Amino acid sequence: PDQTGAFFGVYALSGVATAWLAPGLVSLVTRLTHSQQWGFASIVVLLGVGLAGLAFVRGGRADVRATGGNA
Question: Rounded distance, CA 2 to CA 9, Å?
Fold first, then answer.
């Protein structure tokens, strides 16, 4: 709750970054390998980075008192 603005900023930045990073990566790998299949397969790398990033996210149950029971 105290860092809501900061978290929204990181979320917005990640959306902007992937908007140019994924097409750029596909283009680069396609040019280097001369294969569209390898170019699109490079997206698996981005998915792996995202999955690895999720390992550092702490999850938990919503505080029922703070939401008024509508979690």
Answer: 13
Domain boundaries, the chain: 22-52
Report the C-alpha gap between 49 and 4 in whole angstroms: 24
Q: Taking the CA of residue 67 as centre, how many other CA atoms within 13 Å lie in the half-sphere pointing to its CB? A: 7
**Structure token pair of residue 66:** 């703070």
Three-class SS state of 30: helix
User: pTM of whole model > 0.70?
Assistant: no
* Cα distance between residue 39 and residue 27, in whole Å: 7
Please, where are the H alpha helices in 34-56? 36-41, 43-54
Per-residue pLDDT 10s for the chain (71 aa) are: 677 888 888 888 888 888 898 899 999 999 999 999 999 999 998 899 889 988 887 776 666 565 555 55
